[in-house]
Design brief:
alpha/beta, Hemocyanin, N-terminal domain, Rossmann fold, 4 domains, five-stranded parallel beta sheet, 16 strands, Malic_NAD-bd, malate dehydrogenase (decarboxylating) (NAD+) activity, metal ion binding, NAD binding, NAD
């Protein structure tokens, strides 16, 4: 499947051990006889020349000998540090199996143990105490490079494990390459080390980050702004991807910079976009509209709010509903109960204001001992058609909640999205049983199919951000758009929804199978780039009609090219 490409030819200035230790250029035992002679490798490699297929077979056998996911993650990280083509070629052959090893959920464990697993530095680390040399440090790694993607994190809110101080976001970049074809040489992962409030890390003498309490307030904002302005100055056309920022900063920073540069927050916009795509597929099954639904979102953090805003914006754009009216279709519930004024300002973040429900609406609704309206009472009163969980509160969608919802609509749309699987709001099998097979389901973690009353399998869609965010990013990079607009994100979600197997068979998943992620993300990227042209914010000179051809041409593939020694470059 992946062989040496006669079309790829490179002039390479590295020789000998330097070439063999460069993950970008190393081929290992795949170097040809002539290349071994030209690059001084004959005595440095065993005699046998292997194909990429043989190398992948060997690497996969080695991988399978590792027992635990974290051991497999460590092996793959080591492989990535040795040979990019082999690493991505192996992943491409086993996407469903290995994505969960290099990404969610295993990567969280790897980050949690980052300081103890640390072997080799990857990406860029910009630390608060060294901010005076930030520009110099940044240029040292990026000067002369065509950086198209920067994934940055301050590691305050890593999925399931919270504040980790330093948590390099290289896994996110790897997914961009695996599923969208972003050249790994043009991507950069950046850790913005502003300290940590994690006492375990602060007391760990092996912790590799800056051992100080997390910087906040004005000093934090200045540090982040200095970094963003460096990007705008030196890499004006790259996509800046914010990852794992805390709830107090994620939405705020996105809103602050999204009109200045092409920025994207996967926790907010990626989660919102993939959920929107699943919703569009679901309403395609029910033959209704987004504006016809009543939405209850359980969990009002970055993900829940991101979903509410993304769906709200789609209702405005697609169905032509005024913003204020669209806002009224949403009921947000968090750990304090339904979001309404009587909770008080300390329990309602400014970003939630548009979705606060008037107290007078709930005067006839029972409250708990803390004076809060609980989820069941919200479901009973609202009779939602859509119930979304982003709470990490396992089992919150009880049988009573689900059956009450079913009483109010024929085909309830239920998305328990919390990760990992033990934190899911309801097991999709239970939701299917309690609704007599009528629920339309999507989850945040992979689940096996469940049985319908007629004995058929119902495929549970995995509402995984990786089905869309690489394509959203690639579309922005491809068009060199000055912003990542709401219209671009909605266009990507619409294209993903159009690929839903459920539109042909209601018992199939609402989203494409994860194995089809590369093809799905290419379609998303094309839609996003076309929308950038429609909005007139592209930064390229070619035409809208060329988008698909340019996308296919630009994609990086894990192929070995032919090397010619560049003597001039080696001097």
């Amino acid at each position: 499947m992946f062989q040496i490409s006669s079309e790829l030819k490179f002039k390479v200035a590295l020789r000998g051990d330097t070439l063999l230790t460069s993950p970008r250029w190393n081929k290992g035992t795949a170097f040809t006889k002539q290349e071994r002679k030209d690059f001084g490798l004959t005595g440095r490699l065993p005699s046998r020349i292997n194909t990429i297929d043989e190398q992948c077979e060997r690497a996969y056998d080695q991988l399978r000998s590792r027992e635990s996911p974290i051991q497999k993650n460590s092996f793959l990280q080591s492989l990535k540090e040795q040979n990019w083509v082999l690493y991505y070629s192996l992943l491409s052959r086993h996407i469903k199996e290995l994505t969960s090893i290099i990404y969610t959920p295993t990567e969280a464990e790897a980050i949690e143990n980052y300081s103890h697993l640390f072997r080799r530095s990857e990406g860029m680390f910009l630390s608060f105490p060294d901010q005076d040399t930030m520009e110099e440090d940044f240029l040292e790694q990026t000067r002369g490079k065509d950086i198209e993607l920067i994934v940055c994190t301050d590691a305050e809110a890593i999925l399931g494990i919270g504040d980790q101080g330093v948590g390099i976001s290289s896994a996110k970049s790897a997914i961009y390459t695996l599923l969208a074809g972003i050249n790994p040489a043009n991507a950069l992962s950046v850790t913005l080390d502003v300290g940590t409030d994690n006492e375990t890390l602060l007391n760990d003498h092996l912790y590799v980050g800056w051992p100080s309490k997390r910087v906040r307030g004005v000093e934090y904002d200045k540090f982040i702004d200095k970094f963003v302005q460096l990007i705008r100055k030196h890499q004006p056309h790259c996509l800046l991807h914010f990852e794992d920022f805390g709830v107090s900063n994620a939405q705020r920073l996105l809103e602050l910079y999204r009109n200045e540069h092409s920025v994207f927050n996967d926790d907010i916009q990626g989660t919102g976009a993939v959920t929107l795509a699943a919703l569009m597929a679901a309403i395609g099954v029910t033959k209704s509209k987004l504006a016809d639904q009543r939405y209850v979102i359980f969990g009002a953090g970055s993900a829940g709010l991101g979903i509410a805003k993304q769906v709200r914006d789609a209702i405005i754009l697609i169905d032509g509903v005024p913003r204020e009216e669209a806002n009224k279709k949403f009921y947000l519930v968090d750990r304090f109960g339904l979001i309404k004024p009587s909770l008080g300002p300390n329990k309602i973040r400014p970003a939630l204001q548009e979705f606060v429900r008037p107290d007078e609406e709930w005067s006839d609704v029972p409250i708990n001992d803390a004076g809060e309206v609980e989820l069941l009472e919200v479901v009973r009163k609202v009779r939602p058609t859509v119930l979304i969980g982003c709470s990490t509160k396992g089992g919150a969608f009880t049988e009573r909640v689900v059956r009450t919802m079913k009483e109010g609509c024929e085909r309830p749309i239920i998305f328990p999205l919390s990760n990992p699987s033990h934190l899911v709001e309801v097991d999709p099998k239970d939701a299917n049983d309690w609704t007599e097979g009528m629920a339309l389901l999507a989850t945040g973690s992979p689940f096996p199919p469940t049985k319908m009353p007629n004995g058929k399998d119902y495929v549970i869609a995995e509402c995984n951000n990786a089905l869309i965010y690489p394509g959203l990013g690639f579309g922005s990079m491809l068009s060199q758009s000055r912003q990542m607009t709401d219209g671009m994100i909605i266009a990507g979600a619409q294209r993903l929804a159009a690929l839903s197997p459920a539109l042909k068979d209601p018992d199939s998943g609402l989203l494409p199978d994860f194995q089809d992620g590369p093809a799905a993300n290419l379609e998303v990227a094309v839609a996003v780039a076309e929308q950038a042209f429609d909005e007139g914010i592209q930064g390229v000179s070619w035409s809208r009609e060329e988008v698909r051809a340019k996308a296919e041409e630009k994609q990086w593939k894990p192929l070995y090219g032919k090397y010619e020694y560049d003597e001039q470059g080696a001097k």
